[in-house]
Amino acid sequence: MANITSLNDDVLLKIFEDAVWMADGKPSGNEAPLNLSRTCHHWRESLLTNGRFWARFRCDRDEDMPLLALWFERSKNVTLDLDFSEVSLHDSHLRMIFQDQSRLRRLLMTGTRSDNPEPVTIRDLSNMVEMTLDGVPFKVDTSLLSETLSQSI
Asked: Are strands 120-122 and 138-140 parallel, antiparallel or unpaired?
């Protein structure tokens, strides 16, 4: 029987992903990835070098919103699944989320509140597979969107 320290990083990351992600593909909580990355040096290095492990962020408490910047940093350049439910999204959060729209794969905002009176402009949906924006004003830049759609046809 192999010792857990002798497992290669791919196997270790698969075990971690299965432990952290629920069957519906949503993270079970933001604490698990943080706790795993604090366990030992080897685990921390494995998790911090793999952006895919940090590609999903679920927030249903305002207290977790400061973690958003950490997830963006650690996810590197992989596409993101973001799920916000019943939280307050401030202007700084919206700027971070929509700064690089091509990274968004799934964006769910249900029951959210925003202090930003200006609508968010959606320009690049190239990787988007699902989007729900409830409580966040938005507009779609149709000129850029139609250009993107015509290029993909």
From this structure: parallel
The structure tokens listed for 107 are: 């964006």
Q: pTM score, two decimals?
A: 0.77
Closest CA to 26 of 64, 59, 73: 59
Neighbours of 5 (CB within 10 A): 9
Which tokens sit at 25? 């593909």
Q: Please state, in angstroms and rounded to a whole number, the distance separating the CA atoms of residues 104 and 107.
A: 7
More confident residue, 34 or 18: 34
Q: Please compute the mean of the pLDDT values over residues 23-31 and round it to a whole number.
A: 60
Query: On the CB side of 111, how many CA atoms lie within 13 Å of its CA?
Result: 9
User: DSSP assignment, residue 27?
Assistant: B
CA angle 53, 54, 58 (to 5 degrees): 120
- Average pLDDT of the chain to the nearest whole number: 79
The end-to-end CA distance of the chain, in Å, is 52
Q: Report the candidate in 31, 39, 33 with the shortest Cα–Cα distance to residue 5.
A: 39
